[in-house]
Amino acid sequence: MKYGFDIDEDIIKLGDEAEQTIAPIFKKFEANALHWSSKVLRAFQHNWLASSDFAEVTGYGYSDTGRDKLEAIYAEVFGAEDALVRPQIMSGTHALSLTLFGLLKHGDTFISITGDPYDSLKSVIGLCGDSRNSLIANGIKYEQIDLIDNDFDIPAIVSRLKSSKVKLVEIQRSRGYSQRKSLTIDKIEKVCQAIKDTDPDVIIMVDNCYGDFVEDKEPTEVGADILVGSLMKNLGGGLAKTGGYVVGKKEYVNDVAERFSAPCIGKDIGANMNQNMLFFKGLYFAPSVVCSALKTMTYASYMLEKLGYDIDPTYNELRTDIIQTITLGDPDKLVDFCEGIQKGSPVESYVKPVPAPMPGYPDDEVMAGGSFITGSTIELSCDGPMTAPYIAYMQGGLTFEYGKLGILLAINELNKKK
Predict the structure, then answer these.
(1) Containing H/E element for 383?
(2) pLDDT value at residue 10
(3) Can you tell me whether residue 14 is helix, strand or coil?
(4) What one-character-per-residue DSSP string does 240-295 give?
(5) Cβ count near 243 (within 10 Å)
(6) How far apart are CA 189 and CA 181, in angstroms?
(7) How many whole angstroms separate alpha carbon 415 and alpha carbon 418?
(8) What's the CA gap between 265 and 284, in Å, rounded?
(9) What is the mean pLDDT of residues 92-99?
(10) Which pairs from 7-11 meet CB under 8 Å and 24+ separation?
(11) What whole-number distance in Å separates Cα of residue 198 and Cα of residue 61?
(12) Is residue 133 very low, low, confident or very high in pLDDT (cuts 50, 70, 90)?
């Protein structure tokens, strides 16, 4: 009954073996966390963060110095000119939608150069669903270029940019619900350089969800013009109750801000909903929390591979986001795996996940998320679409200690089912 739970002794031994084997990898995660912690701390100090910046500002939200400092800090940390960080941005999909509608107009063409976009973005674009308000319904043209062997097809991208005008190129850093690998910063830098060499006026937009603070640079530091993410993921540090961010070149952030509020008002409006302290504190904790999530996923990867599961990435591969996939090949096994993760959760561990429709998704989803913030994916969670090959997408872990216990309990539950 080690750790006070009825976990099989063989699972405990495998967990001990995993920790010993992956200890050198943990050191690399810790060094990266120190790198980002130093950048965050310097930005807090450069912008003279004060306790008065945590005050609630109501109504229209005019003259919120705390909100303004938060956005200046985000811009500095990401090596960008400006930022929009707001509780009114409700999800990563909402942040992406705001950005695309803010930057694209009727007749413009934009291209995804990472193949199929994430499921919920397909309805924003107009590739599925019947919304009259999608990008395509508003006269915006969409094209995509697939990856080749998990890398950008640079010759095809360059050829397309030369053939006719493209307003915006979109890169999805994380794998989303695809079977490809997530993209490294080195690959993103290389394709950004090729795009700008071909047409310097093309806007390069990166969906940064799940990738924030995982490597030692962010896409805005290697050529991306604008970067989009959710505070329900890495940068919320498990503390932000809601929110999203957009960072990048000032003119583009202003366009998105005017879509967020109204023309000629932009960033000047928006009450902080008493979230300033949680946003500052979440960013402060984010490097450590991302480190814990990476440790948790690496630990899980080692154990699941040893137990015969088809996983990606393997424990010793370079990680560029916090996602771990497990291909299960069977709908019942996908539900069972999510049930195992739910059993290892602090909140509603007694609940059984069942497949159900989700707003914005074309297929039924099964989700395990016994999290303090509903839907938070920086907390240990797991989800997947109920379509072949029935892949579980697992992510998060606020601390490695809790993440470790969650994985042990989940695997123990799975073994019981076997």
Answers:
(1) strand 381-385
(2) 94
(3) helix
(4) -SS-EEEEE-HHHHHHHHHHHS-TTTGGG----TT-HHHHHHHHHHHHHHHHHHHH
(5) 25
(6) 17
(7) 5
(8) 29
(9) 97
(10) 7/408, 7/409, 7/412, 8/412, 8/415, 11/303, 11/408, 11/411, 11/412, 11/415
(11) 42
(12) very high
Q: Which residues pair with 325 in a beta bridge?
A: 312, 393
pLDDT digits (tens, 9 = 90+) for 304-354: 999 999 999 999 999 999 999 999 999 998 998 899 899 989 999 999 999
Euclidean distance between CA atoms 23 and 362, whole angstroms: 40
Looking at the predicted structure, is the pLDDT value of residue 418 above 80? Answer: no
Q: What is the rounded CA–CA span in Å between residue 383 and residue 283?
A: 25
How far apart are the C-alpha atoms of 128 and 357, rounded to whole Å?
A: 15
Tell me whether the omega of the peptide bond preceding residue 155 falls within 30 degrees of 0, making it cis: no
The residue-averaged pLDDT of 196-225 equals 98
Q: What is the pLDDT of residue 363?
A: 85
The pLDDT of residue 398 is above 80? yes
Take residue 195 and report the two structure tokens written for it.
Answer: 């795009």
Closest CA relative to residue 93, chosen from 58, 64, 125, 57: 125
Closest CA to 300 of 329, 320, 323: 323
pLDDT at 1: 55
Is residue 210 a contact partner of residue 321, using CB atoms and an 8 Å limit?
yes
